[in-house]
Amino acid sequence: MNTFTLIFLAALAISISVRIWLAQRHLRYVASHRDAVPAAFSDAITLTQHHKAADYTLAKTRLSFLQIVVETSLLLAFTLGGGLQWLDNALSGVFASEMTRNILLIGSVMVIAAAIELPLDLYRKFVIENRFGFNALTPKRFFIDLLMQTTIGVLLGLPLLFVVLWLMQAAGDLWWLYTWLVWVGFNLTLLAIYPTFIAPLFNRFEPMENGTLKSRIEQLLQKCGFTAQGLFVMDGSKRSSHGNAYFTGFGKTKRIVLFDTLLKHLEADEVEAVLAHELGHFKRRHVVKRMAWVFAASLVFLWVLNWLMTQTWFFNGLNVTSQNTGMALVLFFLVLPVFTFLLQPLSSLYSRKHEFEADQYAAVQTQAHSLISALIKLYRDNASTLTPDPLYAMFYNSHPDAQQRIARLQIAVHN
Length: 415
Ligand SMILES: [Zn+2]
What we know:
Layout: H1 3-32, H2 47-78, H3 83-94, H4 98-131, H5 139-170, H6 175-202, E1 205-207, H7 212-223, E2 230-234, E3 245-248, E4 255-259, H8 260-265, H9 268-283, H10 286-308, H11 312-316, H12 325-340, H13 344-365, H14 368-381, H15 390-396, H16 402-414
Parallel strand pairs: 2-4
Antiparallel strand pairs: 1-2, 3-4
Helix pairs in contact: 1-2, 1-15, 2-4, 3-4, 4-5, 4-12, 5-6, 6-10, 7-9, 9-13, 9-14, 13-16, 14-16
The structure holds zinc ion.
């Protein structure tokens, strides 16, 4: 057996074991804390609501085992199982042009993976979300969304893929650098057009009605020195009852979007505090910093891919004999997550640091106690667990635990 096959299998075994171990810990921890609301929340959250959060978390975590089985089987079927080589052989028999073959190879892998993961997604939305009363999607809307997402994905992704494959073949030794520049440009363009061209295809965005809430928010924006194109309310309720708020776009297209579901559940001062938290992310340049990390990582990955595509052991070790650019690209992105999985806690830690900073910003610009009550309502209404397994949370969670966030905000209240 090829040494790289062994390395790949070992990395895969490690990542699967860690995922299963963490999910099991999480299940045990949440179940064993199901029967008591943590003291800090006992005034605001009833035992019934706490039970719901635990059961919702358990249902989602149990589904993740199935997710691991499906993902791993698919990865092994494509690589060591010979699926990719079989696809490539089949396409070579029909299409003479290498570019067409490469695009179809990558396209087929994406379609097959999406088709196999579809039942899991359906189960998540129409069984779990339904059972806990969060789903507002009809099957019809689900499939219309899927069709539109696929169409947009093809319209945007196909030209990008064509350019990348062309650069890999024709741009010489520095193709990875040119590809990186194209990738950065593509992402920045997407970010600029998303709020005005893509998001409105899926949701209605109404300018916020004039009133006390709007003038309070405008005052807050002015105080924080923030200019945005507009303040919009989005009909998130047509898909789910989970509430949210976000900033989107950059430069001239920058806008603030509040879900209608958020406005329904929060008081004006709480909405203001949630917005101030989001503003904190902008003011502390978290979005830019995260983007810089993502771009830096993609440059490294492309450079590694440049090296790997000339290494026969990389292809043979994954049971592939066609050593060409399309195959290199698809193999690389299939196996990359296996090797980067253990970096997840670093990314989560970085994100949690930013969340604390945004909370601090909100505490200074608005009232810390308003953010505390907003957070409690959001945890309650979204049935987010208050008692995650500490190691599981450390590994995956992009947001600090409710208890930690509120404890830090309470220090701000007392100062
Ligand atoms: Zn945040």
